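Hi there. Long-time user, first ticket. I'm pasting a complex I've been working with (about 872 residues overall). I'd like to know whether the download I got is complete or cut off, because the file seemed smaller than I expected. Thanks.
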Amino acid sequence: MTTISDPPKAQFRLSMLIYDTRYRSMTIQVVALFGFMLLAAWLVNNTIQNLNDLGKPVEFGFLVEPSSYDINQRLLEYDSRDSHLRASLLGLLNTLVVAFLGCITATVIGVLVGVLRLSNNWIVARIMTVYVEMFRNVPVLLWIVLAMAILIESLPAPRAFRGENPEATMNLFDTMAVTNRGIYVPEPLFSRSLGDIHFLGASSLRFDVSLDLMAILIVLGASIFAMRRVRARADAVQEATGDRPTIWYIQLGILAVPMIALLVALGFHLGYPELKGFNFKGGTHLRNSLIALWLALSLYTAAFIAEIVRAGILAISKGQTEAAAALGLRQGRIMSLVILPQALRVIIPPLISNYLNLTKNSSLAIAVGYMDITGTLGGITMNQTGRELECILMLMLVYLSISLSISAVMNWYNDRVKLVER
Amino acid sequence: MSDVSFVRTEMLPEQAPPASSVGIIGWLRANLFSNITNSVLTLLSLFFVWYILSGLIPWTFQSVWTANSLTECREIMQERWGSTHGHACWAVINERWLQLLYGFYPPYPATPDVIVGESTGFLPAYFRPNLAMVLLLVAIAPVLFAEYVPRKLLIVTASYPFLMPWLMWGGSIWGPIMVAAGLGIGYLAYRFLTPIVGGIGGVVAAILLPVIWWLFLSGAVAGAIDSVIPIGIAEVESRKFGGFMLSVLIGVVAIGVSLPIGIVLALGRQSDLLIVKGLCVGFIEFIRGVPLITLLFVASTLLNIFMPPGTNFDIILRVMIMVTLFSAAYMAEVIRGGLAALPKGQYEGADSLGLDYWQSQRLIIMPQALKISIPGIVSNFIGVFKDTTLVSIIGLLDPIGLSQGIRSNAAWNGIYWELFAFIALIFFIVCFGMSRYSMYLERKLKTDHH
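Hi, the file is complete. Here it is re-exported in full:
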């Protein structure tokens, strides 16, 4: 007699796909994948059918056709006979320019405001609170449009600078003209220029590299390298003897002397803007659209960065400050040596996402007519060629790759400063 | 020898602190003039505040309220104060505030050609959007202030999604009722079919039957009933919508719909199911990687191309869909943060009680995770509401779109501070109010003792 029987043989039944937890997750996933593919196929099918009906199948040939529109603020040379692809490239550069400038100013203002908001000084802290709340609770588009309106409506026209007794005068010892058509600032010029190298011939992606700029960058890099060596040596001396040699004048010399020598050799001088006819000539012309966008984006994002900085500093417990004070550190050094290095770990991740937001918000340039990638590829090119699908697809890809690369770089940095835990 | 040592047997009376460290002076010394740097900062700040206020207050209050154009405004200013600078011309707001609030929505929709301000019906002007707004407040009150408001008002909340579109766009009442009936059909199917075809079958039926109803039957049924008992109000076209009404409309729909979608996406991203997780991550990262404006371009140009040929649905609806998807991706990340912040013991505890996945999410995980993510959720709401202004770029007439129109009008050409101040003030009030509410909610839900 056997009391023990074999366990019931697990027989596969169809209902086990749903009721057996071993198979259920598989079922759900297959259903989800199937549903997703069905949806995607449906959308693609509709799209193809609609585009065929409209008579414009997906193709990117329009990119090499002449764009026949002008881009007023640009980094590379361009005219309206250039292709749509080149127009998009210039737009992309313009996006990067405003994002880069915006991130820098937003960080500077944001850190300042965030620290001042924690100030012991009641009235300073209140003013900073008002600033933060004012900018955070009003849409960024409104700030951009308002900044543009202020620049256009309240600044003097170039003709106000004319005549014996002009209504407006130039600023900063006659070097800068602030007009309602933009700001003219002095431009760097080289009388013994080394010239440019042209890359990529006559294609749409051609660009020039100024050898002067290259030379400056190389010298700057070499100087910084030498400065680090000097500092490393000073550190070694301090380790060995306990006395730190004074090196700041050596460092200053290493930085300044080669640079000045190079600039003199290149014949560096500034080109000042001058009123000629109805407009200013010479100098670098920063258009209203760029300035409005830059200003509004920086001030808006700075309000968010200020909050992040404040939260980061508050996250460091008071004991850290007190311990540092007990070691005899001064107020400023407590901040720079103890609090900020720790606070940075809290600050960096949200800071990254704010940089990303700023970059994405720069697409609002289209509201003030700054020709960024949204204004060129997603604006005029799209309206002229009627290639909505292709243009928007490319536009999204560009923004996606900018976003992903910024977050990749910042994540790498974040990994480096991360607290090493045992 | 006498004992010269002296021991005091009673305490000395407490002395008042020095006058320089209490009261107003003490406060001033501690907060404004604690050292030289601080004193300098204080003086500079006081000068700054005085400078701003001395310009702002006369500008705001010594202003012109009635005029027909900017030129007339300036003439009045010249006459009254001898200069055109430093005085606001609120006349533009006085003249256009209804437009900034409602866009070109007809005040009396039954008779489309009436002139603003001339009543032809027995209902007050803008009755329908105003009623929709009041009902919105009634509908969200039981959600926001659960302990002060009777729970019966939740009926309004539940019916609001069907009532609001009908009030705003008008048309036959049977359409929204038939849409609502679909949900009823789903519920009934779940209730009565589950005992017959089992749990999973019930769920499938509860999803499939309403979809079949909405796609194929509800339109015909609504039309049939409407031909027998026609109840309806005048229709209003989407292109007449505008102003803050449009911002609130898009904002409320996006906020309301994106929260549940965001929760589902966050759960998908946290789940062990590889494919589901992949789909959710792909969706979230894609949406978060592109600016909203590109999604709005999709709404304005591409969404109709994605639909079956011949579909042409409303631009406001298309914008709402894209803004909702955008907001949902951000919401998902906020909620994922809340889920990640929960200690693992909560998940394990829920499992050990024998709760299944949905029960543990509903009873244990979500209430805590959502509580943690309140600040993020609310700041996301604020962001969505602010982002509704972007629709002006694709040509919808939100306040900023309208302001451009007003500024290019010959009568008001050259005005900007007054217009933008008005728009900014309203946005500020709404957004600031939301952030204060989130602080209140955090305090209310706080269960730890600090």
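A couple of notes from our side: Chain B touches chain A through 57 residues (CB under 8 Å). The beta strands of chain B are 171-172, 232-233.
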